[in-house]
């Protein structure tokens, strides 16, 4: 049987088209076939199919190549699907058209196809007449209760009677197909339209707009099938807008939880979301962060494994009961005690859950390891699971995660896999507790995900930009990481010194070399548990703020990668480049007096040495922030910490930082205009520095960063069908918007952090549809806190954005909080997701009296204890009719559903 693929695509000299076979009947094939052309427009490939491939389903996409390099390809999340005839055919002739990522790509995401607008796919009923015309078209606009019908001229297509038209099958999400058997007499064309019928009310028909479709048919030999891939059906797109809640899993509270939120509580929270008319629930990362077994592990963005789930989230209620009655009673009393605490006691909760899991593991392991479910899990996940288990064993053996001190185990050894994968070995049994725990966690999270889909709720996860530098990922695949730098963020409203997250930066060259497989595996694993996700700090895919390993603060960082400036370039702005003066800390008598006051002489004597005139330099033992940090280790007196911070400031008082890759290039130090080194410049030099600074940070790297992002993000966006949402806040270059629009990623819109620098607050009515609208994130003050932070700002917002006269009331009243939520819910944004604290703000009887007790994170504090927990049980929220009705009414009034 011959398969002839045709596609019209205009190329330029040197370009050629390829057919990329993805699979045959769900079996990966990854074969590539070159196409031929005579005019550079119509491309053809002829394939000879084996007899055994009759009845198979082929999935493929087209790509463009030049000189052996792939230039572009079709949208791979919805490849072409071709069901081959069951009976032998002379030829199958296919006329395709190129599919770029569509504007309405979100309708193909799992968020829509599995939660908001689910429809089951079905198989094409193959016909076997003498000649078959197959019609293929995409119609993502259809709702759950609608089906596509092809109607047109003649008896074949129902004579324009929808009830007699050709019923089409949705053989992949949003793509419909039908076979039409041609009569014996010659037919030279088909005239048709598509119509959507309502399964509940067959008389409710929506016709596509526009002219009739006319297909000119070639003369077919007997026994041929011709396939037409038609342009998308012309139905109106209903821009669905939904509301949701943001709450970390650890913050959930039910009557039966064990002192911290778990995956059973997540199901209960899904019930609350569904009951109030919401359709989305967003959580923070759920990955394992265990390094010290202390509260410092509570930071959910410092994962030790991109695959492993944190054991604290296990729902012990879903496990078999402890057989020992005494131990069962002890654990129940401990559960009640921990669950009554206003906040999470991270250390006690995790120790208690580990003890409980150890008891159940010993009790159930013999049966579990023989189960089909566990065997399947181990087979599918052992690539990461085995190294993670050994890493966890070594962490406990050595009592730390300083992997450089794990003698003989400083890096994962692939040769160990066989021992730890064989159920008959001692090593397997040593690691079995970690296998069992991850199996339980994965099963429970998958069950919660399925439950959310059944309730029509989009479960939205969070993918951190970084990983712990002493974690399993670095231990297993160090080639992907740069350990001589630290990832962070430049200064912003949250932190004047920038943020130093301590994560290693990525070796993007190594990652790109293998098609970003590390990231692809990560995203595909997330798809087991979520239908949407937030890319934490999406700017990191354009450039990361890389801080020297000897720095504590983020001020001495530089964007990596970025285009550093030569001496000649700097001087072209009119600024004479004095390397010695501009690249070393500027420390003068007058700066010391302003920083340290009457302790300036003490600082000179102990920490400085004289350079020349009234200029000083730091002594060798204190010339980096890490050395200063070590010198003040253990000191907690406020005066000592004040002195330490002043010394930190001396280190970062430079006008330029040297490029980390090329010693002959330089970067203007971020926010240098606020430091003493800038004050030393004369007026003309200041103007030159400002021009240079603005060009560097806002224009110079735009195209470069765009190209960097497009090497990575397209692969990740197409790795799964999850709905992609970006956290695009901070120092955002113009190219970020270019990429987000091109890849159809949802932006993040926060009214108090407008993207437009010319306005003080955002206008929700101007937000784009492809966006997530919210009032506060986990890194920000809650609405109630924000309201009382800055009286002048709040007054401006009250008068000019809420359009109310008089003085703004303090504290924020419930009715006013409701107005602010309504303003944001009315935005055009696809998703409006409010934190649980901001939802609670509308009910003065329900919310906490102290607004400060609701804060989740303080970004300026790298040692923050993440322990916020809801103060009210979710079951009680569900039973609180007034509160639930209030939310439901808000959602209904603002047109969300």
Descriptive overview:
The protein is of the alpha/beta class. Among the domains are: 2-229, Immunoglobulin-like, CATH 2.60.40; 560-702, no CATH class. The chain has 27 helices and 35 strands. The strands form 7 sheets. Strands 4-5-1-9-18-10-14-13 form an 8-stranded mixed β-sheet, with no helix packed on it. It has an 8-stranded parallel β-sheet with strand order 32-24-21-20-19-35-34-33. A hairpin with a 7-residue loop joins strand 30 and strand 31. The two termini are 50 Å apart.
Write the layout of secondary structure elements.
Blueprint: E1 2-8, E2 15-24, E3 27-34, E4 36-37, E5 42-48, E6 57-66, E7 69-73, E8 80-83, E9 91-96, H1 110-116, E10 131-138, E11 146-152, E12 166-167, E13 169-172, E14 175-181, E15 189-198, E16 205-207, E17 213-216, E18 224-229, E19 242-246, H2 263-275, E20 280-282, H3 325-339, H4 346-368, H5 372-398, H6 417-421, H7 426-454, E21 458-463, H8 472-476, E22 481-489, E23 499-506, H9 508-513, H10 517-526, E24 532-535, E25 544-548, E26 558-560, H11 567-572, H12 579-583, E27 587-588, H13 589-596, H14 600-607, E28 608-612, E29 615-618, H15 625-631, H16 638-651, E30 656-658, E31 666-668, H17 676-679, H18 683-700, H19 702-710, H20 713-717, E32 723-726, H21 734-742, E33 747-750, E34 771-774, H22 783-789, H23 791-800, H24 814-825, E35 831-835, H25 836-840, H26 874-879, H27 881-893
Parallel strand pairs: 1-9, 9-18, 10-18, 19-20, 19-35, 20-21, 21-24, 24-32, 33-34, 34-35
Antiparallel strand pairs: 1-5, 2-3, 2-6, 4-5, 6-7, 6-8, 10-14, 11-12, 11-15, 13-14, 15-16, 15-17, 22-23, 22-25, 25-26, 27-29, 28-29, 30-31
Helix pairs in contact: 2-7, 3-4, 4-7, 5-7, 19-21
């Amino acid at each position: 049987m011959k398969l002839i693929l045709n596609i019209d695509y205009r190329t330029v000299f040197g370009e050629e088209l390829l057919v990329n076979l993805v699979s045959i009947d769900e079996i990966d094939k990854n074969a590539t076939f070159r196409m031929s052309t005579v005019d550079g427009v119509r491309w053809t490939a002829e394939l000879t199919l084996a007899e055994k491939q009759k009845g198979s389903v082929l999935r493929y996409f087209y790509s463009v190549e030049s000189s052996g390099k792939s230039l572009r390809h079709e949208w791979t999340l919805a490849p072409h699907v071709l069901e081959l005839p069951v009976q032998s055919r002379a030829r199958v002739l296919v006329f395709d058209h190129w599919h770029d990522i569509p504007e309405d790509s979100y309708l193909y995401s799992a968020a829509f196809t599995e939660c908001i607008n689910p429809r089951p796919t079905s198989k094409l009923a193959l016909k076997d007449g003498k000649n078959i015309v197959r019609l293929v078209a995409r119609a993502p606009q259809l709702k759950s209760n609608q089906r596509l019908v092809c109607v047109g001229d003649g008896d074949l297509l129902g004579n324009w009677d929808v009830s007699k038209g050709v019923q089409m099958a949705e053989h992949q999400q949003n793509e419909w197909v039908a076979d039409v058997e041609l009569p014996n007499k010659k037919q030279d064309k088909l005239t048709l339209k598509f119509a959507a019928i309502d399964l509940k009310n067959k008389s409710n028909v929506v016709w596509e707009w526009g002219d009739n479709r006319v297909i000119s048919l070639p003369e077919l030999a007997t026994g041929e099938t011709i396939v037409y891939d038609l342009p998308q059906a012309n139905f109106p797109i209903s821009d669905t807008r939904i509301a949701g809640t943001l709450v970390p899993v650890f913050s959930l509270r039910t009557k039966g939880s064990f002192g911290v939120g778990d995956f059973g509580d997540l199901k209960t929270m899904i019930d609350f979301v569904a009951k109030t008319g919401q359709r989305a629930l967003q959580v923070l990362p759920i990955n394992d962060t265990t390094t010290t077994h202390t509260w410092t592990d509570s930071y959910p963005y410092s994962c030790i494994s991109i695959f492993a789930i944190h054991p604290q989230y296990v729902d012990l209620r879903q496990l078999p009961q402890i057989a020992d009655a005494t131990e069962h009673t002890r654990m129940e009393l401990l559960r009640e005690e921990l669950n009554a605490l206003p906040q999470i006691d991270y250390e006690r909760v995790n120790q208690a859950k580990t003890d409980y899991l150890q008891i159940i593991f010993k009790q159930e392991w013999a049966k579990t390891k023989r189960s089909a479910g566990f065997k399947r899990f181990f087979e599918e996940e052992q690539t990461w699971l085995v190294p993670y288990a050994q890493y966890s064993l070594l962490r406990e053996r050595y009592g730390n995660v300083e992997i450089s001190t794990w003698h003989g185990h400083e890096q994962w050894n692939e040769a160990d896999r066989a021992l730890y994968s064989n159920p008959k070995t001692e090593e397997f049994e040593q690691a079995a507790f970690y296998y069992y725990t991850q199996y339980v966690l994965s099963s429970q999270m998958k069950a919660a995900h399925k439950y959310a889909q059944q309730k029509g709720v989009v479960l939205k996860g969070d993918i951190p930009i970084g990983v712990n530098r002493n974690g399993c990922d670095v231990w297993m695949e160090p080639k992907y990481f740069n350990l001589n730098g630290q990832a962070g963020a430049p200064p912003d409203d949250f932190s004047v010194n920038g943020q130093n997250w301590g994560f290693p930066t990525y070796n993007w060259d190594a990652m790109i070399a293998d098609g970003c497989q590390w990231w692809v595996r990560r995203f595909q694993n997330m798809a087991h548990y979520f239908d949407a996700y937030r890319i934490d700090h999406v700017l990191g895919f354009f450039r990361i703020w890389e801080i020297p390993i000897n720095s504590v603060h983020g001020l001495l960082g530089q964007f990596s990668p970025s285009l550093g400036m030569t001496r000649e370039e700097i001087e072209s702005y009119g600024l004479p480049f004095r390397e010695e003066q501009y690249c070393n800390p500027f420390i003068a008598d007058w700066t010391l007096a302003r920083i340290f006051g009457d302790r300036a002489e003490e600082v000179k004597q102990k920490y400085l040495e004289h350079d020349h005139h009234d200029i000083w330099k730091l002594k060798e033992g204190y010339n980096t922030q890490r050395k200063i940090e070590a010198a003040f280790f253990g000191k907690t007196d406020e005066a000592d910490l004040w002195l330490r911070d002043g010394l930190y400031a001396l280190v970062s008082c430079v006008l330029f930082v040297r490029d980390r890759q090329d010693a002959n290039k330089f970067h203007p130090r971020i926010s240098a205009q606020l430091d003493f080194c800038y004050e030393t410049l004369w007026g003309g030099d200041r103007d030159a520095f400002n021009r240079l600074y603005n060009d560097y940070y806002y224009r110079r790297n735009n195209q470069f960063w765009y190209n960097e992002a497009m090497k990575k993000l397209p692969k990740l966006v197409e790795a799964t069908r999850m709905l992609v949402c970006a956290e695009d806040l901070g120092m955002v270059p113009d190219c970020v918007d270019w990429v987000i629009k091109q890849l159809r990623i949802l932006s993040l819109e926060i009214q108090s952090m407008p993207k437009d620098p010319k306005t003080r607050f955002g206008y929700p009515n101007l937000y784009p549809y492809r966006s997530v609208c919210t009032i506060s994130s986990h890194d920000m003050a809650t609405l109630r806190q924000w309201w009382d932070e800055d009286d002048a700002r709040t007054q401006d917002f009250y008068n000019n954005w809420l359009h109310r006269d008089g003085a703004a009331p303090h504290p924020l009243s419930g009715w006013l909080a409701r107005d602010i939520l309504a303003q944001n819910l009315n935005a055009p944004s696809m998703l409006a997701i409010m934190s649980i604290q901001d939802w609670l703000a509308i009910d003065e009887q329900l919310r906490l009296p102290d607004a400060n007790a609701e804060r989740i994170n303080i970004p300026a504090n790298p040692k923050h204890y993440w322990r916020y927990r809801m103060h009210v049980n979710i079951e009680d929220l569900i039973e609180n009719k007034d509160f639930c009705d209030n939310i439901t009414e808000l959602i209904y009034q603002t047109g969300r559903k």
